[in-house]
From TrEMBL, chain A:
One of its GO terms (molecular function) is protein phosphatase regulator activity. This is Serine/threonine-protein phosphatase 2A 55 kDa regulatory subunit B. It comes from Chelydra serpentina. Keywords: Repeat, WD repeat. InterPro entries: PP2A_PR55, PP2A_PR55_CS, WD40/YVTN_repeat-like_dom_sf, WD40_repeat_dom_sf, WD40_rpt. Belongs to the phosphatase 2A regulatory subunit B family. GO terms for cellular component: protein phosphatase type 2A complex.
TrEMBL record, chain B:
Signal peptide: none annotated. It comes from Chelydra serpentina. This is SERTA domain-containing protein 2-like. One of its GO terms (cellular component) is nucleus. Residues 40-87 form the SERTA domain. InterPro entries: E2F-SERTA_domain_protein (IPR052262), SERTA_dom (IPR009263).
Length: 448, 291
């Protein structure tokens, strides 16, 4: 797979589609909160703050023509979670979808896990394009016939009908988390998955909803001693006994479930010593890891903290093998970003299918890609201004200080309300989905 | 829902008062970022004030964000530890320069800023030190926080976050401060102004309950809050949301109708009347930005 951007053999990213309302006035419920491709890349799911899941399906026909890769069109929309009120604790439980994870496909139907702060649901998305006709005891409209009027018997036949996509909740995994769920991750054993909140991680079996195993618990006996919370967790893509979780202190712990039932003692601890020259009052806050993702190969993992993306080799714990600065120009603005709470924004990151390029979001609707082989990076913008299909995106540049060149943007004119927190990369092709506040952009590489 | 509506109404009321304060804070934080000449201790104080303000805001929310609270609490602890180390290393009469600190941050500006230590704290008092250097009104009006304030503030926040585990009526709006006896001065942030007499302890922090600031609600008759809420479904035995949890020490029936049950004179007996009055904070902010 080709690289991130720039000249030569590198990819040129083109606008493909944009989904969502055009207005600047964003309805709160439409704010996109998660984006995820399924394992084949044919389906793209988004979750929003209103608790809805929208699934897009890639058209198959155009792929043969190779003018462009197939477009993504709405396949299914359903309300996954509703707002709830916990009467016991007088708390509102938000219906916002925190994460969606697809399960590997086992039969004709598709399955995904979606979660809000407290409850995880397993949804089955299935197609129906035939229906039986010619029942003996029922009329076509469903009314029952009087058995005495039946004179002959016939076998119902299946006739084609318009495609109907049905989403039905198959399992509801509730009441296992006191704190807010931030991650779910399906295991490679195809039977279990984990869910993580601020202080605990639970292991579930997909078939069993009334109980789960607690595998990590970092809650101190005395809450006053709490100094660290869990921020993300993921199963290893190949080893079904291995998972990692990241913390607000910038550490990642790798745990092996074979070692003990409660994995409070890590097998490996990944932590980079702090750079003393970069020390500030906000050092700890910006070291908090907002996302952790294994590479497809399982050999590396990537973490995202406020200013950088780090790639870790699982065999080396004391420092990352690669570090990429996402928006270093913000380091001198940390106090303002702390004041307006932007410093707590949780950016996600993702790998491309071959693990050669990583991508993450930034402010001003910018997103960044880093090519691990060429060491080149590119900044692109998700904006409706470039909305002609096959328009190549122009690289953007932020001017940190000094003279601003033409086409550069100065740090002070960045819009911090336009943040790209969620991005996803097709597992096989160069197609990316980038979510701005309430719009979903799909970009593809230029196909000649 | 009753709780949601009250939160909404209180949030709006607070927002009106906080908006000016927030605007001033935004100005200060960009000053922090852009200015190289701000003395280190002033920067640290600014950050500390921002942290404490945020923590206070979170306290008023029914379910504060645990991740953010922990990060902010850690920042406060870190600053507190640094200040403690500095004060333990400095001689009592510090008037010129800052004593060398092994944890010193780069960019310390050691122009005669001294640390004026609040009385009543467990730090050494700068006895007889006319410690205000002639740096101008900003240093003279620094908001000082004692060790006890910060420790108790962090403790109370984290303890309250633990309430989520409890089945019993949540204690999130019951001030932790009521559970711990505190010395009068240690609950307060002190505003020092060289030009005026001490106005009295200003409690931004105190016991984290805005019930201590009766000024918020005094222009709202209690009945107004509830007049369009249908309470017919609540009988007298219903254990209503935390805002109305009956407080053991108070027996007056009207306590259960008050928005903040601990807003009563009996609980204030042991604590001097600390008024979290943001109009006075506005005044402080004006002084700080030198307007």
């Amino acid at each position: 797979m080709a690289g991130a951007g720039g000249g030569g053999n590198d990819i040129q990213w083109c606008f493909s589609q944009v989904k969502g309302a055009v207005d600047d006035d964003v309805a709160e419920a439409d704010i996109i909160s998660t984006v995820e491709f399924n394992h084949s890349g044919e389906l793209l799911a988004t979750g929003d703050k209103g608790g809805r899941v929208v699934i897009f399906q890639q058209e198959q026909e155009n792929k043969i023509q190779s003018l462009s890769r197939g477009e993504y069109n709405v396949y299914s929309t359903f309300q996954s979670h509703e707002p709830e009120f916990d009467y016991l604790k007088s708390l509102e439980i938000e219906e916002k979808i925190n994460k969606i994870r697809w399960l590997p496909q086992k039969n004709a139907a598709q399955f995904l896990l979606s979660t809000n702060d407290k409850t995880i649901k397993l949804w089955k998305i299935s197609e129906r394009d035939k229906r039986p006709e010619g029942y003996n005891l029922k009329e076509e409209d469903g009314r029952y016939r009087d058995p005495s009027t039946v004179t002959t018997l016939r076998v119902p036949v299946l006739r084609p009908m318009d495609l109907m996509v049905e989403a039905s909740p198959r399992r509801i995994f509730a009441n296992a988390h006191t704190y807010h769920i931030n991650s779910i991750s399906s295991n490679s054993d195809y039977e279990t998955y984990l869910s993580a909140d601020d202080l605990r991680i639970n292991l579930w079996h997909l078939e069993i909803t009334d109980r789960s195993f607690n595998i990590v618990d970092i809650k101190p006996a005395n809450m006053e001693e709490l100094t660290e919370v869990i921020t993300a967790a993921e199963f290893h893509p190949n080893s079904c006994n291995t998972f990692v979780y990241s913390s607000s202190k910038g550490t990642i712990r790798l745990c092996d479930m074979r070692a003990s039932a409660l994995c409070d003692r890590h097998s490996k601890l990944f932590e980079e010593p702090e750079d003393p020259s970069n020390r500030s009052f906000f050092s700890e806050i910006i070291s908090s890891i907002s996302d952790v993702k294994f590479s497809h190969s399982g050999r590396y993992m990537m973490t995202r903290d406020y200013l950088s993306v780090k790639i870790w080799d699982l065999n080396m714990e004391n420092r990352p093998v690669e570090t990429y600065q996402v928006h270093e120009y913000l380091r001198s603005k940390l106090c303002s970003l702390y004041e307006n709470d932007c410093i707590f924004d949780k950016f996600e990151c993702c790998w491309n299918g071959s693990d050669s390029v990583v991508m993450t979001g930034s402010y001003n609707n910018f997103f960044r890609m880093f090519d691990r082989n060429t060491k080149r990076d590119i900044t692109l913008e998700a904006s409706r201004e470039n909305n002609k299909p096959r328009t190549v995106l122009k690289p953007r540049k932020v001017c940190a200080s000094g003279k601003r060149k033409k086409d550069e943007i100065s740090v002070d004119s960045l819009d911090f309300n336009k943040k790209i927190l969620h991005t996803a990369w097709h597992p096989k092709e160069n197609i990316i989905a980038v979510a701005t506040t309430n719009n979903l952009y799909i970009f593809q590489d230029k196909v000649n | 829902m009753l709780v949601a509506r009250l939160r909404f109404m209180l949030g709006r009321g607070l927002k009106r008062k906080l908006s000016d304060y927030e605007e001033n804070m935004a100005g200060l934080s960009s000053a922090f970022d852009s200015s190289r000449n701000l003395p280190y201790s002033l920067k640290r104080q600014l950050v500390l004030n921002m942290c404490l303000t945020k923590l206070q805001t979170y306290k008023m929310v029914v379910e504060p964000n645990l991740h953010r609270s922990v990060l902010i609490a850690n920042t406060v602890r870190q600053i507190q530890e640094e200040m403690r180390q500095e004060s333990s290393q400095q001689p009592v009469n510090v008037c010129n320069g800052i004593a060398p600190n092994p944890l010193s941050y780069p960019g310390i500006d050691s122009s005669g800023i001294s640390l004026h230590l609040p009385s009543g704290s467990n730090q050494q008092e700068s006895n007889g030190c006319n410690s205000w250097s002639a740096e101008g009104p900003i240093e003279n009006s620094l908001l000082m926080v004692s060790d006890d304030d910060m420790s108790s503030a962090i403790s109370s926040i984290l303890k309250d976050l633990d309430f989520m585990e409890d089945i019993s009526p949540p204690t999130s709006l019951v001030p932790a401060g009521d559970d711990e006896p505190k010395s009068p001065e240690s609950t307060c942030l002190k505003l020092e102004d060289d030009r005026q007499d001490l106005k009295g302890a200003e409690c931004v922090f105190g016991s984290f309950e805005i019930s201590n600031s009766t000024s918020y609600l005094k222009d709202l008759a209690i009945d107004d809050i509830f007049e369009d809420i249908d309470t017919s479904m609540y009988d007298s035995d219903f254990c209503v949301p935390p805002l109305m949890t009956p407080r053991p020490p108070s027996s007056a029936t009207e306590e259960t109708l008050k928005t903040f049950p601990s807003c009563n004179s009996s609980s204030a007996n042991n604590i001097p009347i600390c008024r979290t009055d943001l109009s006075e904070l506005d005044h402080i902010m004006e002084i700080l930005v030198g307007s």
